[in-house]
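Annex B. Sample input.
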Amino acid sequence: MGILEKIAEIEREISRTQKNKATEYHLGLLKAKLAKYRSQLLEPSKKSEKGEGFDVLKSGDARVALIGFPSVGKSTLLSTLTKTESEAASYEFTTLTCIPGVIDYNGANIQLLDLPGIIEGAAQGKGRGRQVIAVARTADLVLMMLDATKKDVHRELLEKELESVGIRLNKRKPNIYFKLKKGGGLSFNSTCPLTKVDEKLVQMILHEYKMFNAEVLFREDCSADELIDVICANRVYLPCLYVYNKIDQISIEEVDRIARTPNSVVVSCNMKLNLDYLLLTLWEYLNLIRVYTKKPGQPPDFSDGLILRKGVTVEHVCHSIHRTLAQDFKYALVWGTSTKYSPQRVGASHTMHDEDVIQIVKK
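Annex B, continued. Sample output.
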């Protein structure tokens, strides 16, 4: 019995089992087995033939992966937003490999990857699905292209495919402390009342992974699935933006309804509608900020800013200018929204905001 058959068998068993108090341990155990087999499936086979390379070298300030079913307009979006031409035609699987493009927005270079269309069963390796999903794991943001003329079936199928390979969309990491020990059995504790799991279930899940000595501390009320995610430790938590294309083919009421759903943007690549708002939302989701530098006695250099992540400190700014600058750092003068008055003299731990101006003074 191969891994795929085992997975299918467990999935059937889960769908057959009623969810109630009496079956929660059985279901928890089945979910742990399922996660174990899926991670085995993702591991590359021992002998690998040298094939055509698929992944693209990471470049620019951020990386965005375009994921979607065939013929939803991924290549058209890439050609419209970037200078790269990706072949687009009215038949499925026009794109067969990963095609990179660069969006130049607010002075930042954002790498956009046009990936081949995903089909149902991609997680098991159908239609180069595994390579597509492996590239998506390395991105900073997933842009999920959906066809507005079709209902939310596509979205659910894609989420399910990504979920089964360990990509969690728009979720944060469960607040569970987990550490393996040499001996002493299971030490289980929680800082809040638990309604979804108890010590017995945690013990059974850990036994399934052949872990008998561990320390587990729940800091929030998590489910068995989230505990399995923490144990596997190979899950990727990515922000996801749902982009509904072809809005020129549906009614205005439907467009209005879709646009109001969370994390969604409606566009039309053919008629170039709403693409500027898509770029604005993309910038917000990537958490990027611009910091401009200033030399003493000269105006700030607004032509070439530093592109950094939200929450960076003055120390990070020093490192991005030159790696030895942080050692000689004395203080900095900052103009902008992160200060009480401009200019303000700050230390290395001061947090920068978007479009701040900084002047660094060395020892």
